[in-house]
Amino acid sequence: MRPAILFPLFAETCTLPGVGPRLEKLIAQVAGPRLKDLIFDLPTGVVDRSYRPKLITAEAGRIATVTVNVLDHLVPRVRQQPYRVRCSDDTAMIELIFFHAHEDYLKKTLPEGSQRLISGRVERFNNKLQMPHPDYIVAPGEEFPLHEPVYALTENLPGKVLVKAIRGALEKVPALPEWQDPAYLKARGWPSFGDALRKVHAPVHEADLAPTTPERQRLAFDELLANQLALMLIREAMRAAKGRALKGDGRLKAKALAALSFTLTEAQNQALAEIEADMASPTRMLRLLQGDVGSGKTIVAMLALLGAVEAGTQGALMAPTEILARQHMAALEPLAEAAGVRMALLTGRERGASREATLAALADGKIDILVGTHALFSEDVAFRDLGLVVVDEQHRFGVHQRMTLQGKGEKVTDVLVMTATPIPRTLALTAYGDMDVSRLHGRPPGRKPVETRVMPATRLDDVVEHLRKAIAHGARAYWVCPLVEESEKIDLAAAEERAEELKRTLGSAVGLVHGRMKPAERDGAMEKFKSGEIQVLVATTVIEVGVDVPEATIMVVEHAERFGLAQLHQLRGRVGRGTGKSSCLLVYQAPIGETAKARLQTLRDTDDGFVIAEEDLRLRGPGELLGTRQSGQLEFRMADIAVHGELLAAARDDAGLILSRDPDLKSPRGDALRTLLYLFGRDEAVRYLRAG
């Protein structure tokens, strides 16, 4: 049960005076539907109206607050022209400028002959002082804010309306019990939760917006503690849930290893040993296998699946897209055959009698390992005894989805999540703290480094000429077109245009793949590229380019400045998979900003995905690094992981100490911490407390 003290903050925003259905929807877009969402919507700027000059000394470009006498109104003859109100103090004149003005309102607000206090940005035009659309116009003695917070807005939501709503929400914040250790608060010089909230919403200077102020640090620590506490509670509950030991005898694994043309790296052997130890223990496994592009995660996962089959259960491998599911199937089927294991594929494309036959064989236990997309977990898919699920986690499962996944098996299912995005340790702690982590460093034998070059779009002709010579010698290349805007249609047009231009220069060796193609048509283009019938594959960014074509040795990324570091690193990883020397050409459109320049420089300097991930975090923060827009992924409101890494470590330590002393959160502080968990939306974790 949510604590009663929090009920006011879980009220909907429409309970605030002046917030009707239309404003409620707009506020939900920028903050959320409840009052607690409003109090966690932090200011992004501050308007400082403390500059009080005489008109003659007013600096153009600054926000100024001046006392003036209203002289006269200059009403425009046609509505398209601006409405002007001339004012003065005892030193100079100023014109107030209004577009699309309402004459009656302005004459009532600014009566001729009256004195008014006005505030807004001063401009100088034709050597005259102007103030377009003053922010505030009040009579002398009336109150108006000298300092006002600025918040992110959406179309048709006035800033003053949002400010008023947030102030209304702040008034509803009750006196909450203190969940932090008083000695720690004193040592850090941090205020109470309520005082911190009120202070962050009342900035006076730009410095008050910094994530390092005592108030922002306090709130960030609250959020990080809630996160770490929740992950630890869920982790303990999963460990406490009765599992079963899946211990293979190694016979199938030995056959698969004998069929490989290479030996496993030390990192692969270490990761496999950790996974097998988890599977052999009587508790459930929930492990993250984290590795760089081409570090050999899939073979480790396959060997783990064979271990599950050796133990008499079934295995499943789920990929985010049909293309990748088919790629996994093609890569792993020879190993399954060598081991004498029955493997099948199930995607949304399989229908009718063939699907029914697969489902029947799966339920009877005649299929040992099933590969597919999320279609694997639709209700009609029943395993005889599912022992291990491997998730190729490019679509970012959150904690809740991972828990649902573990419940798919009739008995107990171990879960191994693979991610090809190297994740900085701080982000791994916040997003995957409920999981054990195995890291694969380095590249397997035979993987060659990719030469990376950065060049301006003015040299595009040189790039095409380089391609022409390379394909004349049998080379194959990807050409990735940019994300023009959030529009698949525009992406497609850009890719089609580029494909046509390349065809005119390079001939029929150019192919195109995009998200709107029918699956069979797309697969056909991919197969032609794999076979060499197509030598240049132009692709939009809306599809996963993850086709494993060892013969592809060139990657061209157009408008590389628009991509994130992780994305560019993933794209570069599509080449360098064979024996040939590979190159990645990052083509940018000048001029580019310092951040984009730093991204491209990082790609040129290193191919270590973990180094790149740390730099990505530093350059652009955690916002998109883990795909926060995607289903189930965590997003922080108060904490900035790029800045608050030290606080995260402290929160993790504190959470561990709390649960070691008070595992059911029954003490007075434990009770307050339950309130914290609910406040930050970690209700899932509270359900795992034995005391409810």
Could you explain the architecture of this structure?
The chain is an alpha/beta fold. It has four domains: about 5-45 and about 150-210, no CATH class; about 50-145, Beta Barrel (OB fold (Dihydrolipoamide Acetyltransferase, E2P)); about 250-440, 3-Layer(aba) Sandwich (Rossmann fold); about 450-605, Rossmann fold, CATH 3.40.50.300. The protein has 23 helices and 22 strands. It has a seven-stranded mixed sheet with strand order 6-7-4-3-2-5-8. A seven-stranded parallel sheet has the order 12-13-11-14-15-10-16, sandwiched between helices. The chain has a six-stranded parallel sheet with strand order 17-22-21-18-20-19, with helices on both faces. A hairpin with a 2-residue loop joins strand 6 (about 125) and strand 7. The protein is globular and about 95 Å long.
Secondary structure layout:
Blueprint: H1 21-30, H2 35-39, E1 45-48, E2 63-74, E3 83-88, E4 93-98, H3 103-109, E5 115-121, E6 123-125, E7 128-132, E8 136-138, E9 147-150, H4 159-171, H5 182-188, H6 193-200, H7 214-240, H8 251-259, H9 266-280, E10 286-291, H10 297-310, E11 314-318, H11 322-339, E12 343-346, H12 352-364, E13 369-372, E14 386-392, H13 399-406, E15 414-419, H14 425-432, E16 436-440, E17 450-456, H15 460-472, E18 476-480, H16 488-506, E19 510-513, H17 519-531, E20 536-539, E21 552-558, H18 565-572, E22 582-588, H19 594-605, H20 609-620, H21 645-661, H22 668-679, H23 683-686
Parallel strand pairs: 4-7, 10-15, 10-16, 11-13, 11-14, 12-13, 14-15, 17-22, 18-20, 18-21, 19-20, 21-22
Antiparallel strand pairs: 1-9, 2-3, 2-5, 3-4, 5-8, 6-7
